[in-house]
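Translate structure to sequence.
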């Protein structure tokens, strides 16, 4: 561990503390969020793995003019996206955890396609070649000083270390980079049985990405389907609160088809961008998980509150992604990562849907619970001591 690692941990934990404080304060204003979350838990139980619901949703999307692709795995999804790009050399992209799951940006870049991340945090991660530390706040582990210093090297000009200056610089950079992008790629917070896509965001960038002139590609998991638009919007409110501390995101986009007009003889005529909308629904093991003892993990809304409250992640950083994300890694074969888990159960306690991550981790771990508890705590205490000593040595507050 060096000074950079310590600075990242300090910055990340400060950011997470700020989020927890904002949640606590706004919970007084929006106490109903807990009852909404309880309702959504029931919706997720009924929807996850529901093949009939998924089939009906796909039928309605196609009826509304979406091109729908079912991707069995990463390779299928990448093949579909590559074909849809049709030789495009620049693509505008917004934040998407499913895109990260299939390493979309890296795969497209290896094929000679310039992918421009349009979320500020993701753009920082992209330029600095960093790993994200949180699903909705990927650059939370980077201090303003560190970002400014590294961006100064990248852009070959001195950047004043202030959040306002950095955001302004990156906004201009993104605007120039996406000028020639005819295709945009986003994720989706939810899709619904009626054939609607729900996307929430705070920066306003998704509006620009989804309205590229040629095509909008939506990449999401088959587990994101909801019975109704009302359920999807309620879930988005829960996700927003626990991801940012605010009850509502700045923007909630609800899309159920291409732009069209019926002002002439009530004939529906396409009018506006994009010309085509493609929806790629990724399985990538979700069907198997939904039929297993780990089905509950697919109820996840992706708010990242399990990460924010994970004491192991707070000292190990990306070596232990925390909560749901560590469990997914283990389910996919990296069971060794669970040695860092403290069995503190804070992930379940702080999950808005009370997903029992501790139970699933316990089922995957080898050895007795007592042994795992003792070893993980000894490792954690040792690591935390090193971090605290290095903070003193490097004079971090």
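Result:
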């Amino acid at each position: 561990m060096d000074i950079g690692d310590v600075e990242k941990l300090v910055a990340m934990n400060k950011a997470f503390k700020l989020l927890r404080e904002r949640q606590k304060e706004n919970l007084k204003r929006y106490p109903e969020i807990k009852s909404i979350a309880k309702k959504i838990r029931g919706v997720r139980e009924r929807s996850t793995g529901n093949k009939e619901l998924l089939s009906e949703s796909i039928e309605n999307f196609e009826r509304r003019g979406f091109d729908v692709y079912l991707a069995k795995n990463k390779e299928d999804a990448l093949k579909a996206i590559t074909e849809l790009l049709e030789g495009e050399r620049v693509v505008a992209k917004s934040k998407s955890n499913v895109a990260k799951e299939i390493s979309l940006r890296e795969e497209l870049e290896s094929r000679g396609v310039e992918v421009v991340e349009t979320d500020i945090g993701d753009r920082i991660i992209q330029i600095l070649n960093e790993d994200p530390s949180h699903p909705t706040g990927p650059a939370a582990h980077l201090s303003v000083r560190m970002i400014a210093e590294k961006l100064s090297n990248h852009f070959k000009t001195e950047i004043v270390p202030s959040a306002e200056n950095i955001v302004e610089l990156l906004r201009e950079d993104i605007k120039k980079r996406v000028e020639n992008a005819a295709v945009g790629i986003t994720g989706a917070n939810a899709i619904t049985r009626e054939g609607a896509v729900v996307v929430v965001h705070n920066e306003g960038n998704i509006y620009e990405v989804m309205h590229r002139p040629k095509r909008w590609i939506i990449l999401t998991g088959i587990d994101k389907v909801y019975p109704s638009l009302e359920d999807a919007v309620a879930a988005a409110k829960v996700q927003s609160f626990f991801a940012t501390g605010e009850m509502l995101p700045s923007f909630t986009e609800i899309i159920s088809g291409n732009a069209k007009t019926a002002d002439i003889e009530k004939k529906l005529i396409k009018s506006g961008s994009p010309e085509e909308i493609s929806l790629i629904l990724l399985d990538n093991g979700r069907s198997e998980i939904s039929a297993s003892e780990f089905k509950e993990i697919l109820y996840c809304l992706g708010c990242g509150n399990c990460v924010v409250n994970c004491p192991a992640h707070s000292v190990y950083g990306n070596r232990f992604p925390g909560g749901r994300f560590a469990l997914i890694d283990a389910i996919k074969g990296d069971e060794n990562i669970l040695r860092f888990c403290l069995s503190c159960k804070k992930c379940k306690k702080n999950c808005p849907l009370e997903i029992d991550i501790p139970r699933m981790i316990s089922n995957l771990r080898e050895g007795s619970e007592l042994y795992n508890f003792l070893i993980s705590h000894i490792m954690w205490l040792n690591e935390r001591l090193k971090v605290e000593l290095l903070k003193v040595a490097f004079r971090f507050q």
